[in-house]
Amino acid sequence: MILVTHFDPFGGSKINASQIVVELLADIREGIELMSLPTVFDDAFSRLRLRLLDNVPEALIMVGQAARRSLVTPEKIAINWKESATPDNNGFIATG
């Protein structure tokens, strides 16, 4: 099983493109489990961690939305820098 995560809408948007993409992926391939993560810095990781402790998938693919980018841009090195220009759904703006 492959676990694929996406985020809920944030910043006043009604949709998050990451959800649309992963739902399409799940429609065309078997063995994919979807998980929606809250667009809240610490809550997202906590929920994912609990899920991974419950049952470790063969692979984990995390998909997010970068509104200013026009192309899909895979992250080559996961630095996980906690910084944002817009607040999360709890109103928190991370500054690094």
Question: Can you walk through the features of this model?
Answer:
The protein is of the alpha/beta class and 96 residues long. The chain has one domain: Aminopeptidase (3-Layer(aba) Sandwich), CATH 3.40.630.20. The chain has 2 helices and 3 strands; from the N terminus they run E-H-E-H-E. Strands 2-1-3 form a 3-stranded parallel beta sheet, with helices on both faces. Strand 1, helix 1 and strand 2 form a beta-alpha-beta unit. The longest helix has 14 residues. 10% of the residues are buried. The mean pLDDT is 89.
SSE topology sketch:
Elements: E1 2-7, H1 17-28, E2 32-37, H2 41-54, E3 59-62
Parallel strand pairs: 1-2, 1-3
Average of the residue pLDDT scores: 89
Q: Numbering strands along the chain, what is their spatial order in the largest sheet?
A: 2-1-3
Strand content: 15-25%
The proportion of residues forming helix, as a percent range, comes to 25-40%
By CATH, the topology is Aminopeptidase
- Looking at the overall shape, the CATH architecture is 3-Layer(aba) Sandwich
Number of strands: 3
Radius of gyration: 14 Å
Tally of domains:
1
**Separate helix tally:** 2
CA-CA gap between termini: 34 Å
Shape descriptor: globular
**Which stretches of 5+ consecutive residues score pLDDT under 50?**
none
Largest sheet: 3 strands, parallel
Helix-and-strand structural type: alpha/beta
CATH class division = Alpha Beta
Q: Give the name of the CATH superfamily.
A: Peptidase C15, pyroglutamyl peptidase I-like
Can you write the helix and strand succession as a string? EHEHE
